[in-house]
Amino acid sequence: MKSAKIVGLGKYLPSKRLTNFDLEKKVDTSDEWIRARTGIKERRIIEDGQGASYLAYKSSVIALKRAGMKAKDLDLIIVATITPDTQFPSTACYLQNYLKAAKACCFDVSAACAGFVYALVTAWQFIRGGLYKNVLVVGSEVLSSVTDWQDRSTCILFGDGAGAAILTPTSKNGFLSAYLGGDGSQSDVLILPGGGSRLPISKEVIDKRLHYIKMRGNELFRLAVRIMVQAAKKSLTKAKLKIEDVNLLVPHQANERIIKAVAKRLNIPLDKVYLNISRYGNMSSASSAVALCEAWEDKKISKGDIVVFDAFGGGLVWGSCIIKWI
Ligand code: ACO
């Protein structure tokens, strides 16, 4: 059966750094509290006037170059984002135009922090089904645009960035399994309430700061640990693999304590778990994409390795996917 493989990876992080010490000057918090509760030291912030498509473009150019592919050869572009440039057109369309990838069809995926995993699995299925060959998958976020910089319980967490992957068909077994899930009954645990069709932007929405992320962090913490453990176990079972077979776990980077709790419950040593949250914070769909790219750049992934993605986010949505690096 036809499968897919990743042939190029790229990432782009804006150069502007926002440290915990900078945040101490904005809200009642401390570097010590943020590091102890989240593991985050700093995050990146986009320049004014740029959007998710710009970050996506910068990461895609690198991924294309590493894949030895021209943008004109792309058949499909999928951008995972919850911070699109505009409600419509999609960020994928803007990216297509930046890249001059005229042949590619394009759409966005909205699955919060699980977005990159959802998009990867979608790309794999398009390739497996034979409809498209060369697929660009990007996780790109400008969470600074929806962060309430007066709310210390959320503004310490989020950052901006993008990661890209190029997928092509292979006769070998590149993608081994996937497990995606959702629970819309818990949508209010993490939500951007204002600015959509239910509550369009208005003076009242802005006065009540409803155009910013609202989160019940404590609840989410417990849900994230439980669900990420379940998701990884389900995808491993589907692939007929054991945790000992895994060479690298690439978890969503929401909180270092969540990742360590998941690793402990899965019984996987921390040296097999990729962590970069200290440098970037939570970049939603971009987190897994950037983590994968950095793990590869750091030579933590070799041919034949089993790599497990495990992500969870607002929706609720979650996803785990297992690939063999070929
Ligand atoms: N600095 C100092 N004190 C703070 C801060 C801060 N930045 N934020 C909250 N506190 C205080 C609270 O007011 C509270 O004080 P109190 O005890 O006097 O009431 C105390 O610290 C403890 O607050 P908690 O909310 O219980 O802190 P917790 O240990 O849960 O950490 C955190 C909060 C970091 C948000 C954590 O709950 C978390 O990471 N949750 C999960 C986030 C997540 O996974 N999001 C999902 C993915 S994101 C996506 O999908 C886009």
Q: How would you characterize this protein structure?
A:
The protein is of the alpha/beta class and 326 residues long. The protein is built from 11 helices and 13 strands. The radius of gyration is 19 Å and the shape is globular. The chain has helices spanning 20-24, 31-38, 52-67, 91-99, 115-129, 152-155, 203-207, 217-238, 256-266, 277-280, 285-297, and strands at residues 3-12, 16-19, 42-45, 76-80, 105-109, 135-142, 160-170, 175-182, 190-191, 214-215, 248-251, 306-313, 317-324. The two termini are 15 Å apart. Acetyl coenzyme *A (ACO) is lined by residues 29, 33, 37-38, 112-113, 152-153, 156, 190, 217-218, 220-221, 224, 254-255, 258, 282, 284, 313-314.
Topology, please?
Blueprint: E1 3-12, E2 16-19, H1 20-24, H2 31-38, E3 42-45, H3 52-67, E4 76-80, H4 91-99, E5 105-109, H5 115-129, E6 135-142, H6 152-155, E7 160-170, E8 175-182, E9 190-191, H7 203-207, E10 214-215, H8 217-238, E11 248-251, H9 256-266, H10 277-280, H11 285-297, E12 306-313, E13 317-324
Parallel strand pairs: 4-5, 4-6, 11-12
Antiparallel strand pairs: 1-7, 2-3, 6-7, 8-13, 9-10, 12-13
Helix pairs in contact: 3-4, 8-9
The structure holds acetyl coenzyme *A.
